[in-house]
UniProtKB/TrEMBL annotation:
One Pfam family recorded for the sequence: zf-C3HC4_3
Chain coiled-coil ranges: none
RING-type domain residues: 99-136
An example molecular function term from Gene Ontology annotations: zinc ion binding
Organism of provenance: Stentor coeruleus
InterPro entries xrefs: Znf_RING (IPR001841), Znf_RING/FYVE/PHD (IPR013083)
Keywords, in A-Z order: Metal-binding, Zinc, Zinc-finger
Name of this protein: RING-type domain-containing protein
Length: 170
């Protein structure tokens, strides 16, 4: 098994955990499952696709389309973003509303990748490193982070869900 294929299998496992968790279901109302249908010895990052099924409670999985390995990474970031947005509005002291660094203060800042932090911790981190403390995605200087105050309405979650489904080829 090659390194790229091994990395894809790891990403599929991570994606299936996030897209099938109760938090994602609470935020979106649905669960997704990803399955690689190719062969490991024929694996090509830009040519293979991954089957996307919607998990239904009363029935078996329903095929909704395919996604490329590159877009799977984007979809995972969007899903984490959706979960963070949905739970950033939950009552204070909820485990989903706590800073990912200190686990003491509420989320005040949301990075583009979807990870949330208190203002103190992310400012301190930014002095040392220019990447997200959780996923190491680069923090763009022009859009270093967005304040939770900009996400007061539900349109942000709806737009993120729409962006997620635009990555899936039907």
């Amino acid at each position: 098994m090659g390194k790229k294929f091994g990395k894809l299998i790891s990403e599929l496992k991570d994606a299936n955990e996030v897209f099938s968790c109760d938090s994602f279901y609470f935020a979106t109302g649905f669960k997704l499952h990803f399955i690689f249908r190719g062969r490991a010895h024929l694996f090509r990052v830009n040519k293979n696709t991954i089957q996307v099924d919607q998990t239904l409670q009363d029935q078996g999985p329903k095929l909704i389309g395919e996604i490329t390995p590159k877009n799977l990474r984007k979809a995972l970031c969007i899903a984490q973003h959706i979960i963070t947005l949905a739970f950033a509005k939950t009552p204070k002291c909820s485990e989903y509303n706590l800073c990912c660094i200190c686990f003491e203060r509420n989320i005040e800042v949301l990075l583009v990748c979807g990870h949330g932090f208190c203002e103190i911790d992310i400012s301190d981190w930014k002095k040392r490193d220019n990447t997200c403390p959780m996923c190491r995605q680069s923090i763009c200087q022009q859009k270093m982070y967005e304040s939770i105050e900009f996400f007061k309405d539900d349109n942000e979650v709806k737009q993120s869900i729409s962006e997620l489904f635009s990555l899936i080829n039907r």
